[in-house]
Structure formats: C-alpha cells, structure tokens
Design a protein that fits this description.
4 helices, about 70 residues, globular, about 0% strand, about 60% helix, mainly alpha
Length: about 70
C-alpha cells in the first residue's frame, strides 16, 4: 500500500494509506504542508500544531471518534 506523501486539509487522506504511514512520517507531511503553505506559526508551536492535525486525521481514519466528523 502506498504511503501518504502530501497533505491537503480540504481533502481527507485515504484512511488505509494514512494508517499505513509511520507516525513520524505523518507528522513530517503535516509540517511540510504548513511550511509550504507559509502558514505563520511561532517556531515553538509548529510541531504541536502539526501533531494536533495528525491526531484528528488518525481519529477520522480509524473512524473511532464520530464527533470529529461533525
């Protein structure tokens, strides 16, 4: 199975690909998205912000937290 290489917050990643991607690689994809999109975040908050994206995408991909979809 292919792993996630890019992230777009407006398009849900393929759940199988997302979960097949190593956790660190998911985080790196998110950090790269924010850097490339020139989203202004304090340097100290970049990793934390990306981590929250990863958490939400994980919940959506596992379909364990229906409240996230709402």
């Amino acid at each position: 199975m292919a792993r996630v290489q890019e992230y777009n917050p407006d398009v849900a990643p393929n759940a199988e690909q997302w979960l097949d991607t190593e956790a660190f690689d998911r985080l790196m994809v998110l950090e790269r998205y924010h850097r490339d999109a020139r989203i202004d975040l304090p340097k100290s908050a970049r990793r934390l912000h990306a981590t929250f994206h990863v958490i939400v995408e994980n919940q959506l991909a596992m379909n364990d937290e229906p409240v996230v979809r709402a």
